[in-house]
Amino acid sequence: MDKLLIRGGRRLDGRVTISGAKNAALPQMCAALLTHEPVHLVNVPRLHDVRTMRQLLDHMGVVSTTHGERGGMSFAAPDTLRPEAPYALVKTMRASVLALGPLLARFGRARVSLPGGCAIGARPVDQHIKGLSAMGALIEVEHGDIVARLPEGQKRLRGARITTDMITVTGTENLMMAACLAEGETVLENAAQEPEVSDLAEMLIAMGARIEGHGSSSIRIQGVARLAGCTHQVVADRIEAGTFACAVAATGGDVLLEHARLDHMEALADKLRSAGVTLTPGADGLRVQSPGGAALVAQGFRTMEYPGFPTDMQAQFMALNLVAQGSTTVTETIFENRFMHVQELMRLGAEIMVDGRVATVAGGARLTGATVMATDLRASASLVIAGLVAEGETVVDRIYHLDRGYDAMEDKLRQLGADIERIQ
Ligand SMILES: CC(=O)N[C@H]1[C@@H](OP(=O)(O)OP(=O)(O)OC[C@H]2O[C@@H](n3ccc(=O)[nH]c3=O)[C@H](O)[C@@H]2O)O[C@H](CO)[C@@H](O)[C@@H]1O
Ligand SMILES: C=C(OP(=O)(O)O)C(=O)O
């Protein structure tokens, strides 16, 4: 099993290219299921999750090819494909549930294994099922699979007004994709406003979908009978950009995050600026300058749906708070079990107290290297950041979590001057 070996204490300087967003590329690959025409994506990140999604699409009968230097991938989903997502592929990646809406909308039936609970929380998909049911689908759970079909004699889903009980990102995406091929109008209330939802909407519009209001909490979709192929560029990954920004903030340095979009990271940017980090947007990306963690002021925050502070940045900003000055509280409001990095950060010398959804973090820590275990994707990133500032050697074990969502993270960090290598 691969590990990362980090010798801490180096500044980060230079330029690094931010890849396309995992959380945009995965739904966009599923959107290719909505048409038999070829769909071309550009700027697809090289990630384990992307490979898993490709395997899942291949399993169904989608023909996929990769091309070009810039993460080009094409998909063609024939009318004869098998609308099934088996457990073996779904279990490693919750985003596989994004196949459900498109399959049901185009083929009138789908069998998608129910994604189980995972490390960061229970993560049910009841809202996806509730929404598709409101559009007329008959849905049952059989042998661990979500089995969905249209009633006898009905060819298409029917538009509906759907208000989800909570804001759900993949729920909004699944329902938006399904609504594109439904008969009549669908209105999604309490919709997620994440940039990845808007990027998916833009792609669907390029395929011929009629969508308005994406980026707001109310999305209106007029269904069409068929969608066409398209070429679409995956938006830059605001979480990868945020992770590198926190790394530079903690180690000190001056780095240009090429392609990063400040307008997609305002809540995080506010906290970084208040801490004492200088952020300068420019034509080719976002410049991050920091005097180093010890010269920064730690910042308390609560995770919220977009445009609030992203839960996917909680662990990385906590690592920064450890080395900045002052005690802070970090409140996780989205997932009930997203503090697993705390135990591991404490192995590096952190002082953190967790009480339910609130962690109290003592700043000004003197971190020292140790062997730590990655427990989930963003927890892994926080351990890497802590390792970059810790004295001596840190080994981060189980980095398959990291590989699920970061494109060549250690290569990018090494390019900026970090002493980091992948070991067996
Ligand atoms: C592939 C992808 O885009 N993943 C992101 C997506 O996950 P994902 O779309 O799975 O997260 P959701 O926005 O759906 O989850 C938000 C909250 O709603 C709950 N919930 C959700 C759906 C549902 O049917 N029932 C229910 O109870 C969840 O358990 C969670 O507590 O948004 C999360 C929140 O920003 C991010 O951390 C993930 O990186
Ligand atoms: C939790 C995450 O992803 P996923 O929804 O794919 O598990 C994440 O990207 O931090």
TrEMBL record:
Organism, scientific name: Comamonas flocculans
Purpose: Cell wall formation. Adds enolpyruvyl to UDP-N-acetylglucosamine.
Gene: murA
UniProt pathway annotation: Cell wall biogenesis; peptidoglycan biosynthesis
Active site annotation, chain numbering: 118 (proton donor)
Domain of life: Bacteria
Protein name: UDP-N-acetylglucosamine 1-carboxyvinyltransferase
A single BP term in Gene Ontology: cell division
Ranges that cross the membrane: none
Binding site residues for phosphoenolpyruvate: 22-23
